[in-house]
Amino acid sequence: MGSFLKQLGQRVGNDEVTGLSAQLAYFLLLSLFPFIIFLVSLIAFLPVSQEDIMNTVSSFAPDSTMRLLEQNISSIVSDHNGGLLSIGILATLWSASNGVNAIIRALNKAYNVDEERSFIVARAVAVVLTIAMVLVIAVAFLLPIFGKSIGLYIFSIFGLDEGFLTVWEALRWVISLIIFFIVLLALYVLAPSKKISIKESMAGAGFAAVFWMIASLLFSFYVNNFGNYSATYGSLGAVIVLMIWFYLTGIIIITGGEINAMLNERKKGKKAS
């Protein structure tokens, strides 16, 4: 275990994981507000309220980040018009696919391969992955609503109405973990310019899903109780907190890819010997 962690630490330094994570955080920030425009515009066509979305995000995001998001959502809702949906879709796809491109470069570096796909193919992969992530995130917002309604109906048949609420509170975290695991698994399989199986990607996806959830909760607790970024950065404090959260997310996602690449190399080394 010690040698594994030591080698992982060396790979993280050699492959410039922190620098690539900073790039990813930048593109995530750029895509966030177009995504909010898209999501808010889409709410009109879905049985989901603004409160449902904010309650889901608030499970992981610090309070200052939530206030920033709520202010922007309120502004978008007040200026809402029909054209926002198409603009939001295009802006989200372009900005978020740049973030996925940063992940593609990072994973290619982890596997020590060059990008052999053409620009069009690589961009298409990034866009497809972005669309998939948006759909999965939408499902993540819908599941708590419909899942709870379906669960209450099923439990009521057996006369277990009250007990379900306790069970659902635990299941909510499990569902979030599974959804994030699926998104990461798709990224680790499709993003690198190399054929990677689902089985070879599961270790990194499991690590990243669990550690992202833990890191998000711990970071949120720290910012809400101890960190005072507004005193240092003033009105930019909420944006800085958001950037740090995205930066931690980038480090965890790329480190998960490094774990997959390292296990892949060790497997090949055993076969060769």
TrEMBL record:
Membrane topology: Multi-pass membrane protein
Segments crossing the lipid bilayer: 24-46, 84-107, 119-143, 173-191, 203-223, 235-263
Compartments, record wording: Cell membrane
Protein name in UniProt: Membrane protein
One GO cellular component term noted in the UniProt record for this chain: plasma membrane
Keywords (A to Z) from UniProt: Cell membrane, Membrane, Transmembrane, Transmembrane helix
Pfam family, one: Virul_fac_BrkB
NCBIfam families tied to this protein: yihY_not_rbn
Chief subcellular location: membrane
